[in-house]
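Write out the 3D structure for:
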Amino acid sequence: MEKKITIAGFGGQGVMAIGQMLGYASCKAGGNALFLPKYGPEQRGGTANCTVTLSDTEIGAPESRYVDTLIALNQPSLERFLGAVRPGGLVLLNSSLCRWTGGREDVKLAEIPADDIAREIGSPKVANIVVIGAYIGLSGVLTERRMLDAIEEKLGKRPELLEMNRLALKRGMESATPRT
């Protein structure tokens, strides 16, 4: 199994953290991961994207023309990277900040109001964790336990933050329903 995922959004939305945590979780599960970050010229508010490859075998090439999944955290990212999703692939979008305008009938679509869910939980900073939950819930490539371990490793062990992140991950897993 090899999955290529592009995650894209504005700087400050946790784009790189999503990619890193997916990679950590894959490696902890005995798989392989490759993380390729790409930054815009600004730090916060500029564009940011990364491509993560998760595999249970060696990863042959760092980049490819198509990805299996696009996680779009904002409208410009959806518009920019939609064409890179292979036919039959998944587009997971943050419907709090972007809208599906169509244009591709050959992909699966999952919309999740990640920012809205994060605010309900109590912090807009956990929107990226909500998105991770949605992705692992839809793809089945990683377990909730492995993902929680990676979140703890990346974001720290403060009990109040761990509980908020655990809830965000769970809500994301429960909220994502694909439509075709």
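The chain has a mean pLDDT of 90.
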